[in-house]
């Protein structure tokens, strides 16, 4: 009985070992139906880390490798770009050089393309052994990322596109479908000069750490120079870029672009850029926290809802509406252009991250309707241009220099304060009969300068204070 039991255990253990080896082996499967020139060979380092001996590059330095399965496990993956006898790697120690590169130049770009219907998993680091090269991972079926990163790579492109090769180079990427999903241990490309994520849809539920990061969503043709040519399609999701509170994007420079009409961006996680931050989409943008030590540029053909936006300079150009739920602030200037602006709390220019005054900063708002429920503030001038300016009870418009307001209809509720340290000019005189200036129990003060109010109709109710150090006109 003991001998039978030992045999059964032996068979089970052997089966498990074989299954495990098969699983590892199946992580990378070469497409045997591809042309020979696109079929790399496989090897392993002494510590078991898989090695892909990439195919010989063409005259332009492109090594185009095709796979049925392409997955990077926790131990990582080595792309052998060495034409020397042996080379040292971080993941696998010393490995032999790539025989496919004998007596030839090494690759400048390594393209790993999946030709089957299988999704890719990137759960470890990819290292280029030998000479540094850019890496492109292209799988139209989708890519799952959990703890991925790159070593010895200039640029990393992760995409659900079909790459187009023209004259020996990648001329463009055709994105028609596919999801890039980032989970758990996230994506780390801090040691890569530039990282690119191209997919129809991207979901971020973990941290992305990068140097220079471009994320482009939607159905597009993306040219090698970065030019985006959107495709006409009605098969859209409601959100093309979605980040949960667990997600976050941290990089020196960040560019987020969504091209599908009416398809939005929902970023519940933090976005933080040491350099510039750019967000552009044809749909609604929902932001929790977007921070930059440099410029912030937000563009949408739809709406913007945000909790916190801060940058050295903030430019917002949104076609329909902007709703500031908490803070929009900048070290210098803020420029907002939209149809409707609602400020629930604070819009402040010329302040630091602690909301203390800096050296300068103007606030410029151009909108059909401005609804101020709390405070509009500027270290320098405030310029408001709106058909309707409505200030809620106890709200303030405060400038350390001058305020210039041009509006057809100005409506101040009770206890509104409009204060300029220098000149305050309010002009809502026009040929439209409905030009009205209403103010109830409000303070309108030009501390050190002139106060000019021009209106077809002025209604001052109860205990208004209108004051200026110099002239009142």
Automatic annotation (TrEMBL):
Residues 1-24 form the signal peptide. Keywords: Signal. It comes from the Bacteria. SUPFAM superfamilies: Pectin lyase-like (SSF51126). InterPro entries: FhaB/CdiA-like_TPS, Pectin_lyas_fold, Pectin_lyase_fold/virulence. Residues 46-168 form the Filamentous haemagglutinin FhaB/tRNA nuclease CdiA-like TPS domain. The keyword Signal applies. This is Adhesin. It comes from Campylobacter blaseri. The lineage of its organism: Bacteria, Pseudomonadati, Campylobacterota, Epsilonproteobacteria, Campylobacterales.
